[in-house]
Write a structure and sequence with these properties.
The chain is mainly α. The chain has one domain: Arp2/3 complex 21 kDa subunit ARPC3 (Orthogonal Bundle), CATH 1.10.1760. It has 6 helices and 2 strands. It has a two-stranded antiparallel sheet with strand order 1-2. α1 packs across α2, α2 runs antiparallel to α4 and α4 runs antiparallel to α5. The radius of gyration is 16 Å and the shape is globular. The mean pLDDT is 91.
């Protein structure tokens, strides 16, 4: 059975609201993870915001990526005491962790409600593994380029980033997808394509 594609017309204020809402949620949850579960500053051992970063990209397209994958992580990292220029610089890992699931779910036509084996395979492969491996690579490379990490610490930092995020997306991200996707798809907030 094919799903009906609904194109919704929204005022620009709706897109601004998506950016602000997703940014605020990931900023607060990201700062919490950074303060309560420190690992290698500014990396936390348990970063609950990544589940929302992934989900908001899938649900809200590029608007979710902008809010949850960029704005929220930058603000959350600043709230942990990291200088703003560095927070912007290292947010590349979070953007990757949001944009890969967003693109994969649109191009692969996976349902975020995770109804079929194919949907689950897309979630595990793209949201849990590929996005987190790419995000960890970009994130630790950014910290190395900024002079925060030495070459010797990169493998430990990468494994910590990747494993912690796989666990969070596997548990919290899966719950978010299963519980909220069906509801959000019926609302005017859900973005079917990249921008609309």
């Amino acid at each position: 059975m094919t799903e009906e594609v609904v194109v919704r017309k929204r005022p620009i204020a709706a897109y601004v609201a998506i950016i602000v809402m997703s940014g605020a949620i990931t900023a607060v949850i990201g700062a919490f993870g950074g303060v309560v579960f420190p690992f290698l500053a500014p990396i936390s051992s348990f970063y609950p915001a990544v589940a929302f970063i992934v989900s908001f990209g899938v649900w809200f397209g590029l608007w979710g990526v902008l809010g949850a994958g960029f704005l929220g992580p930058v603000i959350g990292t600043i709230l942990t005491g990291t200088p703003a220029p560095l927070a912007v610089f290292i947010s590349g890992g979070d953007i990757v962790q949001s944009i890969i699931p967003m693109l994969a779910f649109r191009w692969g036509k996976f349902n975020p409600e995770l109804k079929t084996t194919r949907d689950w395979a897309g979630h595990i492969l793209f949201n849990m593994i590929i996005a987190q491996a790419a995000g960890a690579t970009v994130g630790v490379a950014s910290l190395y380029a900024a002079g925060i990490f030495t070459a010797g610490i990169l493998p430990v930092a990468w494994v910590g980033w990747f494993v912690g995020n796989v666990v969070v997306v596997g548990i919290v991200g899966t719950i978010l997808m299963k519980v909220f996707s069906g509801y959000l798809k019926k609302t005017a907030l859900y973005v079917q394509g990249l921008l609309h």
